[in-house]
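REQUEST ID: PR-0412
SUBMITTED BY: lab tech R.K.
PRIORITY: routine
TASK: structure prediction, single protein chain
INPUT:
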Amino acid sequence: MTEYTADGGRGVVGFAAKLPGTIFEVPVSAGQTYMIHRHGFVCATRGVELSTGFQRSLGSGLFGGEGFLLQKLSGSCTAWVQLGGEIVTYDLQPGESLQVHPGHVGMFDASVNFDVVFMRGIKNALFGGDGLFIARLTGPGKVWLQSLTVPGFAHALQPYLGKEPAQPAQTAQAAIVGGVAGSVLGSIFGNDRS
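STATUS: complete
OUTPUT:
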């Protein structure tokens, strides 16, 4: 983690969201633990303990090919968490369950039992549009859901990005790296055309 320290007095540090949504403050006291989606943790004061809390490989090509990952937030600190889109909260009672698409799980108390299960029914799995897996959260505890996921945001923007098919990520990365390398080499050898 990157650490910021204000020398000689108070200071201010600003952080920006990766997606349209909300960054909100989470007070974390000793013995309190939260599970957060893999891109949700933004920053925290000293005393934060952040680790991998849940990881499951669900096959290649699902969840961006990286499986499903949750971060475990604990310690004694103030943390800031980002969730995409609107936030919907539920206070689950003991034994009460909530089933939701895994990408919409933003954060939950560690007291909530969490599992990713196979979607029941062949028609649901193949034609439901939500994939093959669903998250099941069982209380007691609080759950924060996010309405906007990265794939959902990309899908919503796609009609506005032009008619030409997008280049593969590797081609785009190679072009950027090649351009940066060419610019640096050009300035070293006096071929800068700017």
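NOTES: Residues 164-194 form one domain.
REVIEWED BY: pending
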